């Protein structure tokens, strides 16, 4: 049975904040407690009080290490020995490759043929086996299910998994613990693992905080899904935010987002480039295009932030140096 068909027949148990707390224990001392950074210039530009959670400084360069490590650590020793499998456009692949190496589990990774070279190389560098597919014509869910069945591997998908969501929620837990109460939290949105986890943590620790998802303009399936009240599937969007090129939300992530999110907004790719330049120039941070989505929502006014205390998750910093140079060079 395919993953999609399975989800229609099973009733699923959604993760809760207790799962985020359990994840925080599993990753303690392994994942970095990344810094919460501020910028006077960013505050002056927006009239807000912004706190940036720098997951670009997380191990392997993105928050995905949290969910990947948590999901593998939560397996039985037998499952870990047999190995794990995943499909990913990049950062989740690296997270699973790296976490499985730390936890002694063999990893098989299904990656798109056109994934960024740096991400493919890093994944192989952690010792994982990489299997490629064409993301414009082939169904990675089907391929993943088939390989998992053939090889006896446990599939850990990039976002639609309770332990992945719980792990991603630890970033928001740390941010609120460190920064205190927030009026608004801005979170980028691909398949919704990071946003769903953020919602579980924020609603438990800071119920008054309004949490917004931010998508690339070219791929607003999350926004459409929220408006329609059901998961809307779109074609793989063409955007520089490669970490948010997902075509649909998941069966775990969607209900959490639908019930708890304030709204989902979009920003154009040009705003991501402007934000990348800002982080490089003013805060000395390398943030990948997808990692700039949340900040761009504050900078463009897609979410009104003036006079508010605002958490912004910088989700990752994995970008080819050649692309980075091209992006930050634009318009200068
Ligand atoms: C995966 C990823 C996202 C999107 O996360 P989802 O959990 O799929 O919504 C955003 N930014 C970066 C850097 C990522 O790697």
From TrEMBL:
Residues 32-316 form the Tryptophan synthase beta chain-like PALP domain. It is an enzyme of class 4 (lyase). CDD domains: Thr-dehyd. Its EC number is 4.3.1.16. GO terms for molecular function: threo-3-hydroxyaspartate ammonia-lyase activity. Keywords: Lyase, Pyridoxal phosphate. InterPro entries: TrpB-like_PALP, TrpB-like_PALP_sf. Its cofactor is pyridoxal 5'-phosphate. PANTHER family: SERINE / THREONINE RACEMASE FAMILY MEMBER, SERINE RACEMASE. NCBIfam families: PRK07048.1. This is Threo-3-hydroxy-L-aspartate ammonia-lyase. The lineage of its organism: Bacteria, Pseudomonadati, Pseudomonadota, Alphaproteobacteria, Hyphomicrobiales.
């Amino acid at each position: 049975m395919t993953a999609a068909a399975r989800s229609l027949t099973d009733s699923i148990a959604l993760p809760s904040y207790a799962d985020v707390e359990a994840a925080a224990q599993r990753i303690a001392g392994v994942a970095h407690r990344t810094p919460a950074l501020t910028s006077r210039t960013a505050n002056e530009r927006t009239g807000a009080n912004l706190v940036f959670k720098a997951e670009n400084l997380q191990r392997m360069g993105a928050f995905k290490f949290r969910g990947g490590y948590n999901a593998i650590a939560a397996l039985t020793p037998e499952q870990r020995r047999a190995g794990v499998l995943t499909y990913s456009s990049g950062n989740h692949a690296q997270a699973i490759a790296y976490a499985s190496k730390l936890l002694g589990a063999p990893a098989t990774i299904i990656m798109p043929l056109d994934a960024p070279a740096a991400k493919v190389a890093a994944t192989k560098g952690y010792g994982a086996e990489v299997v490629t597919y064409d993301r414009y014509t082939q169904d990675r869910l089907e391929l993943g299910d088939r390989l998992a069945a053939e090889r006896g591997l446990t599939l850990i998908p990039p976002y639609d998994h309770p332990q992945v969501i719980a792990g991603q929620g630890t970033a928001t837990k740390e941010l609120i613990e460190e920064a205190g109460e927030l009026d608004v939290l801005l979170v980028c949105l691909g398949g919704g693992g990071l946003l769903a986890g953020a919602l579980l943590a924020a609603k438990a620790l800071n119920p008054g905080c309004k949490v917004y998802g931010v998508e690339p303009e070219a791929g607003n399936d999350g926004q459409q899904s929220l408006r329609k009240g059901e998961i809307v599937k779109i074609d793989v969007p063409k955007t520089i935010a490669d970490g948010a090129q997902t075509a649909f939300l998941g069966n775990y992530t969607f209900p959490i987002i639908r019930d708890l999110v304030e709204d989902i907004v979009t920003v154009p790719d040009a705003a991501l480039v402007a934000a990348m330049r800002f982080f490089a120039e003013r805060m000395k941070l390398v943030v990948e295009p997808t990692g700039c989505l949340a900040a761009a929502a504050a900078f463009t006014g897609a979410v009104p932030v003036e006079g508010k205390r605002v958490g912004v998750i910088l989700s990752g910093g994995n970008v080819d140096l050649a692309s980075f140079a091209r992006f930050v060079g634009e318009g200068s």
